[in-house]
Design goal:
alpha/beta, 4 helices, SDR_fam, oxidoreductase activity, NAD(P)-bd_dom_sf, NADP
């Protein structure tokens, strides 16, 4: 099958959780090419599963991306274009995110709220702005943004722990 007839997925947050399972599932078909992003060095323990999968599946390509760093976002389209036989992205799946605050909700500092917003909301959109031209190279052009958000609120009188899926899909 020629690379032009394969479906190309770009998955940010492909090194762990839902993102990694999407990479594993989608790359099990040789009809798909999967570009997965990971934050930080390949030697980090959190990136090991993805690195190992990339060694055994030739249709998995790994790029470095930190959605909180402008330079990383600015360079991502160029990194993707360097891949052998790259012809465009059909589907962009944003599944990266953080959830690491355990403050009482009434005491959570503004900086924590802003860090989560910058990573979970702005990061995928700013990345989309940079890779949008690569989505235009293919006819499908879809963007999925979803996360499984975990929120832990502690109020003075009770504790609430919630998990809910968040998703959106845009046809470009």
């Amino acid at each position: 099958m020629s690379s032009s007839s394969k479906t190309t997925y770009f998955i940010i947050g492909g090194n762990r959780g839902i993102g990694f399972n999407l990479v594993k599932t989608l790359s099990s078909s040789t009809c798909n090419v999967v570009i997965a992003s990971a934050r930080g060095s390949p030697s980090l323990p959190k990136n090991k599963q993805l690195e190992d999968l990339g060694k055994i599946r030739k249709n998995v390509h790994i790029v470095r991306l930190d959605v909180t760093e402008d330079e990383s976002i600015d360079n991502i389209a160029g990194e993707i274009k360097k891949m052998p036989s790259f012809q465009g992205i059909d589907i962009f799946i944003a599944s990266s995110g953080i959830s690491d605050s355990y403050y009482d909700v009434l005491k959570t500092p503004k900086s924590v709220w802003l860090e989560h917003y910058a990573t979970n909301a702005l990061g995928p959109i700013l990345t989309l702005q940079k890779v949008y031209p690569l989505l235009l190279l293919k006819k499908l052009g879809k963007f999925f943004h979803f996360q499984c958000c975990r929120v832990y609120y502690r109020f003075p009188t009770y504790t609430c722990f919630c998990v809910w899926p968040v998703k959106s899909c845009f046809e470009l």
